[in-house]
């Protein structure tokens, strides 16, 4: 069975959840299954609603179908309930390239995941423009990341149970002002510029896709900059959830970005920064491609 592609979309009638079908068709869940009015309701519906969605997607009612071209894709979770949780320095080759910019050639493997957050308001849609933030940062950079969407609440989650709490997977771009990230010590300032968290284009349910070893990559204006596999994470998704949930309750709809592989602009020789007009294409095997452009 093909993996389900869950989306959030909008048109003149407002924002709602849908299923992206073959042939550029969208199954409008506000029509086909009104309780699934938005993605958080879909997630809260759990396995039973997912099974109902599969049945609908396999035999979609014609009156609930829209052409994809007639709607605007939004981030699958357009407004997370709280900050987007992130892990820094989670691929060894990325740790090493960052260390090299500071003259360190014998990088140590991090002992614990480095957690930080991006403000929930930073999330933007596939295709939406990311501002240059000229005058605020001189060094805008990209980071492709596998994103885990939490399905069921939990605290003190053991590693072996962690994947049971994941609803599905999407792609995130952890757009960063590198100079701000360094200047302020804490990363929040450099990581929470307005519109700095493109998310999407779809959520693929965890039941349909193992994210343990997927190709992950990013192109700028067609040039391959990042290319790795999710199996190269230092702390894998179960370990991240285990450690983040220690004494802290994860909630349905929480968004967890799991770190970026090597190939970011600031570690290139010479260092590269994003410029107006640059097209960022982020691809993860089995999920799709998230494309956003830097605006003037
Ligand atoms: Mn990141």
Runs in which pLDDT lies below 50 for 5 or more consecutive residues are none
C-alpha-based Rg, rounded: 19 Å
The helix-and-strand class reads alpha+beta
Shape, per Cα inertia axes: globular
Strand/helix succession: EEEHHHEEEHEEEEEEEHHEEEHEEE
Average pLDDT metric: 96
From the N-terminal CA to the C-terminal CA, the straight-line distance is 43 Å
Give the biggest beta sheet: 7 strands, mixed
Number of strands: 19
Which ligands accompany this protein?
manganese (II) ion
Q: Percent of residues in beta strands?
A: 25-35%
How many helices?
7
> Going across the major beta sheet, what is the strand order?
7-6-17-11-12-14-8
Structural summary, described in words:
The protein is built from 7 helices and 19 strands. The strands form 4 sheets. Strands 7-6-17-11-12-14-8 form a 7-stranded mixed β-sheet, covered by helices on one side. The protein has helices spanning 29-32, 39-44, 46-58, 92-100, 178-183, 188-191, 237-244; strands at residues 6-11, 14-21, 25-28, 65-67, 72-74, 84-88, 114-118, 123-124, 129-130, 140-141, 144-150, 166-173, 176-177, 197-205, 215-220, 223-229, 255-257, 279-284, 288-294. Helix content is 17%, strand content 32%. The protein is globular. It has 296 residues and is an alpha+beta fold. The mean pLDDT is 96. The protein binds manganese (II) ion. Manganese (II) ion is lined by residues 86, 88, 143, 145, 174, 257, 259-260.
